[in-house]
Amino acid sequence: MRRSWGVFLLWLLALVFALASGRDLAFNLLYFVTGVIGVALFWAWANQRGLSLKRQTRVHRAQVGKYFEETLELVNRSRWPKLWVEVHDDSDLPGHHVSRVVNSLGWRAASRWQVRTLCRRRGRFTLGPILLTSGDPLGLFRFAREMRETVSLVVTPAVVDIPQFSPPTGYLPGGEAVHRRTPYVTASVSGVRDYEPGDSFNRIHWPSSARTGRLISKEFELDPLADVWVFLDMYGDAHAEAPWAEEDTDQPLPWLTRRAEKIELPPSTVEYGVTIAASLVNHFLQADREVGFLSHAESREVVQPDRGERQLSRLLEILAVIQPLGRLSIAQVLASDGATLARHTTLIVITPSTDERWVTVLRGLRARGVHGVAVFLAGRTFGPAPDWAPLLSDLQASGLPAYVVNYGDDLSTALSQLASGTGRSLGMRR
Fold first, then answer.
1. Quick count: other Cβ atoms within 10 Å of Cβ 180?
2. Residue 366 in 3-state DSSP?
3. Are 189 and 311 in the same domain?
4. Residue 264 has what DSSP assignment?
5. Would you place residue 245 in the very low, low, confident or very high pLDDT band (cuts 50, 70, 90)?
6. What's the CA gap between 57 and 61, in Å, rounded?
7. I want to staple 278 with a disulfide (CB 3.0 to 4.6 A). Which of 80, 157, 193, 334 is the partner?
8. 297 Cβ neighbours under 8 A, 6+ residues apart
């Protein structure tokens, strides 16, 4: 912009000089400056014409620790070659470097490049818009055109493999299977029999009916009350974190891998808690268990227990964007929502709270037949936080199975070993 004003002042001076002197040389200089300005202005304007940009993404969902791939193609559809075009991307995905300068884009030519970004943070991100900037060879004028099309990308939290998450026998199963016939339709099919008058339409097993030539009905068993509920503490005052300098470094040959060798989480109990919740949900759904989720964040997030990939996708999308904006402590959440849980339910509480009241509530739920398991995030290892030794002693005295996670722990190992002994033997880092 400053250079454009300088050119305009130069032209104005040439005009004043020509009118004041009246000499042919002065007018020739004015004509020359005017011609250069006109050609440069037209060239810069023409460089913006006939350009189109396509961004292609195979998926609109990625995961922390995996690479997200995007292909961009800049096409020149005009008859004028483009000396240079600057592509500036306004995506908010950390580390996603799409911006570049495309040189010598000929007539009907295209420039295509691919960007591969390691997803380090969960959340919902916007890819775009893109600003195309070009100008004349002398750099006198620059024109910009915004491509307003955007693409939404959801980055779900990382999921780690948990070899075993097994409290003492009798806790995790949550209930005993009832192997007896039931007139109700459940998810547990025990066998088939001949159709009897009064059987509902949805009890008919059509493949067996087609094979035998007569109506065959399904027999069901009562489902065990083995639901698993995950309660994630999103009370803001309970969490701890420390500053984190995110390094933008890639592997030497990232094109040969689909995910990072090691997932580095920021020193935040929020991020550790979300990753643990996602990993536990995946662990139990892979075991064909019915899993429910509840958390009080900015709003109350609750998903009723269900099985399958659809449930996993639903919960991961919630965990991708959840933030510690809750106004209820985990003790209050357990007191209000824990009272609605059925007997023999397994309740997993993920929290960094050192308030011993939630242990008292969890102990009361156990008296009602709800088997509680605590996953405690040692807040003092993440940042400034109260002492958590009394809470662990209370958990141990109450006989509640607990897992302790410190900052920097390998989650696969930490979630496979029950905490035992005193606070000192639990690996406290002060």
1. 8
2. helix
3. no
4. P
5. confident
6. 10
7. 157
8. 234, 322, 323, 324, 325, 326
DSSP per position, 9-55 = HHHHHHHHHHHHH--HHHHHHHHHHHHHHHHHHHHHHHTTTTEEEEE
Residue 172, pLDDT above cutoff 60: no
pTM of the entire predicted model: 0.80
Cβ 27 vs Cβ 15: under 8 Å: no
| CATH number for the domain that contains residue 280 | 3.40.50.410
- Of 68-82, 181-195, 217-231, the poorest mean pLDDT is in 181-195
Rounded Cα gap, residues 13 and 19, in angstroms: 10
The CA distance from 396 to 381, in Å, is 20
Q: How far apart are CA 250 and CA 286, in angstroms?
A: 31
Indicate the residue type of 197: P
> Which single residue is written with the structure tokens 């961004």?
55
The count of domains in the chain is: 4
Nearest to 228 by CA among 311, 332, 124: 311
Q: What's the mean per-residue pLDDT of the chain?
A: 85
Contact 152, 92 (CB under 8 A): no
CA 278, 281, 284, 287 torsion-angle sign: negative
Q: Are residues 247 and 299 in the same domain?
A: yes
Sign of CA dihedral 283, 286, 288, 294: positive
Q: Taking residues 124-130, what's their average pLDDT?
A: 95
pLDDT tens digits for 260-291?
667 889 999 999 999 999 999 999 999 888 89
Q: Which domain holds residue 114?
A: 51-156
